[in-house]
Structures are given as structure tokens and as C-alpha cells.
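User: We ran a pulldown and think these components assemble together. Before we commit to crystallization trials, I'd like a predicted model of the whole complex to look at. Sequences follow.
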Amino acid sequence: MQKLRQTLRVRKERAILVAAILRARNDSDDLAELTALAESAGAIVVDRFQQKIRTISATTYIGKGKAIFLDKRVKRFKADVVIFDNDLSPRQIRELEKIVKVKVLDRGELILDIFATRAKTKQAKLQVELAQLEYTYPRLTRMWLHLDTVAGAGGGTAAGAVGGIGTRGPGEQQLEIDRRLVNKRITQLKRELVNIDKRKIREIDGRKGLFKICIIGYTNAGKSTLLNALTDADVFVEDRLFATLDTRTRKWTLGGGAEVLLSDTVGFLKNLPHQLIASFKATLEEAINADLLVHIVDVSNPDALNQIDSVNNVLAEIGCGESPILLVLNKVDIVRKVSDLEMVQTLLPDAVCISAKTGLGLEQLTDVVSARYKGSELLLRVSSSQSDGRIQSFLRAYGRIVKEQYLDGSVQIDATLGRNQLPGLKRLHPEDIEIIQT
Ligand SMILES: Nc1nc2c(ncn2[C@@H]2O[C@H](COP(=O)(O)OP(=O)(O)OP(=O)(O)O)[C@@H](O)[C@H]2O)c(=O)[nH]1
Ligand SMILES: [Mg+2]
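Assistant: Here's a predicted model for the assembly, 438 residues in total across the polymer chains.
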């Protein structure tokens, strides 16, 4: 019955979802997210419930009595797997599996399983494998002892015998490989990822001088939809969690000749396994190096405010806590209660409201980004030789010409220009630049 933890996958498996909530805390997590995650991994959710607990049991998390109750539900719904919204220790998993006699997974393992199925590029695959080895492997090895005891369990359904969520990366042989081999593989993966990382940094360095914007946000917020709407990118969009695992970068023309780079990247989630964030550092390099982060929020989700907090936590963890951010409230077209949207807007008055799907508000978003890109407006007096038309063209493209005066061979122009455009103007070597007003 080594299969129990050998295959932590849940694809097509009958799953029971449990969220254990400490009675003292009034946590209103309604299992919606765990359901979406389980379904994204391919599980069939047959039952779900919240379990209030007074304290966390070191052995079974929810306590023995409640574990026995859970076992009854497992039998009644013919479940193959129980998935907890909480982080369980290897010991808690072991003890729970002894009682319910089917596979027990925690939230981190479920997320890793989804990542494993989504990884397409070499880099994403390596990153997921590393995270899985580091997160799941210690749990698997410690399973050795009790696996025999629960032999025969889960055999009631076909899916149980085939396997399901959790080890889609490192694979079935995992239990057989020696720990030393695993450590060797971890070292090798880290080395390969460092090399990819170096290449990424070189790639990003190569784009120096261009203004870089990265769209970040909770998974399913609409990041890829926005990238597609603003550029002619053809990025995969789907109503499932973690549709994107890689970073894609496209040119975005803001108007007035201004071109910036816009990137879409992997979605964030609350309580992401730490190992996963660590191994996705290279993918998140675009975000780390961006001049502006566009934080997109699915404002139609009742949990939007908490999701904003979770994203901010991940940003702090990857070292972007202080980066310039523009908050964008997406999916305004499907907000159920106008009063909810108004409440969020009152709390976040600087946020721009859009619908990436219908195109609503995209012009305003472009204007706001444009303003950020240009920097605060300056009024300048620039002198140049009349024969050099480049300065006039530049000011016409990036600013606004207010007055032009021709004096023997020379032209004096009064114009407005964004502060960030000043270096570009200086590169054209005008005879003189005077800032009249800031
Ligand atoms: N109604 C509505 N749906 C939207 C809007 N923006 C995105 N969606 C839908 O939301 C779902 C997720 O969109 P994606 O663009 O894939 O989201 P993402 O943030 O890239 O998601 P991940 O890559 O999975 O993290 C898709 O079904 C989109 O069609 C919007 O403004 N309005
Ligand atoms: Mg996406």
C-alpha cells in the first residue's frame, strides 16, 4: 500500500475538503479557494466542511474524535483523498492516514501538484521539481513506517489504485530512491536554476534603458487577459488557478511614441509553500527588476482585500516590498454589489477600475501608467540650432510644445515634458535647457 503516499495526485479522485478553524479566531474562510484548487488539480469534490477546533492537536491536527468523524464521511462518500486547507506536519498526516485509511494531503502539497501539471518550460519544470523534492520528499520518507499498516485502504475505487495529486513531478519511483540521490538531485537542480537565473539577469540587463512594467496579482485575477488586451500577445487565459507559470514579456505602446515592456507572470496565492516561492525566484526576476508593478485585483471576488494582503506578503518575501505599485481593480463588469465595489474604492482611492475582458477603463489605465512612466510634468525652455529638427520631434512626441521662437539660426522652445524623459532630451545635446517650472 505504498501507493497511498507514493502518488499524491488527486486527478479524478473523489476528494473530501476540510478546513480546520480555531474556535477562538473568527476565520471566515469558506472553502471556496480550496475547492477551486482541488478542481484545478482535477479532483472531484464529493464533500467539504469546516471543522471548528479548540486547539491544534500535534498528532491529528483536528483531534482524534473529529478524525473518526472524518473517517465516517470518507466511507460514506467513498472518498479517495482528504485535502486539508491547513498546513499539516508529516506526523499529523501519518496519524490521520492511519485513521481514515486514505491519502491525506495538505494545502501546500495540493498547490505543488497543480504547479507540477502546469509546468511547461524547462525552467518551470526544474523549479517545481526542486520545490517538490524539498517540500514533499521529507514527508514521503517519513511515511515508510506506517504505509504497511494502512495497506489495503483506498483500493475501493479505481482512481485510488491508479494514484492522484502530489507527485506528478519527481514521480512514482520517489520512495525507492535513496535519500542521498535526492540530495544530489537537489544540488544539481539548484545549480541548473542558478545558471538559468544568470541568463535571465543578462536578458534583463540587455533591456536596460527601457521602462519595465510587470503585472502581478493573485492567481486568476486576470493578469494574462490584461497583457493580451494591452498588447498583441497571445497568452493562455483560462478560468483555472495558475494558468500561467512562466513570465512573458511584450512591447506596449503607450501612445506619443512611448514604448515600454510589459510582463505577465505566475499568480500569487495566500500561504504559498515557502519552497515554491524560493524556487520560483528566477521566474519572478521580471517583477523584482520592474520599474513599476501593476497589481491587478479581482474585485468581483468577496475575498479581494485579503488577496491584496497575500500578494503584498509575497512581494515582501521576494524583496519587492518597496517597489512602486499601481493598484488596478479588475472584473468590474461582474461585480455583484455596487456597494462592495464602492467600499473597496473608498479604502483604495488611487486604484484604477477596469475590465480587462470588456476593455472598460483601459484608456484610463494607459493614461495613468503613461503619467507614471513620464514622471511629474516640467515646463522647460530649450534652445537648439534651427537645423536640428530632432529636438522638436522629441518634444512633440513625448511632451507638448507651448511656444516656439526663432532667433538668428537658433530656436527657443517652451515645452512641457515628464521628468523621466529629461535624460532622453539631454542625449540629443540641445544648446541649453532651463527648467522654468516644476
Ligand atoms: N468577467 C470578467 N472576466 C475576466 C476579466 N479579466 C479576466 N477574466 C477571466 O478570469 C479568468 C482568469 O483570467 P487570466 O487572465 O487567466 O488570469 P491570470 O491572473 O493570468 O491567472 P493565472 O495565470 O492562473 O494566475 C479567465 O476566465 C478570464 O476570462 C474581466 O475583466 N471580467
Ligand atoms: Mg495567467
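Residues 3-172 form a domain with the Rossmann fold fold (CATH 3.40.50.11060). That may be worth checking against your pulldown data before setting up trials.

User: Thanks, that helps.
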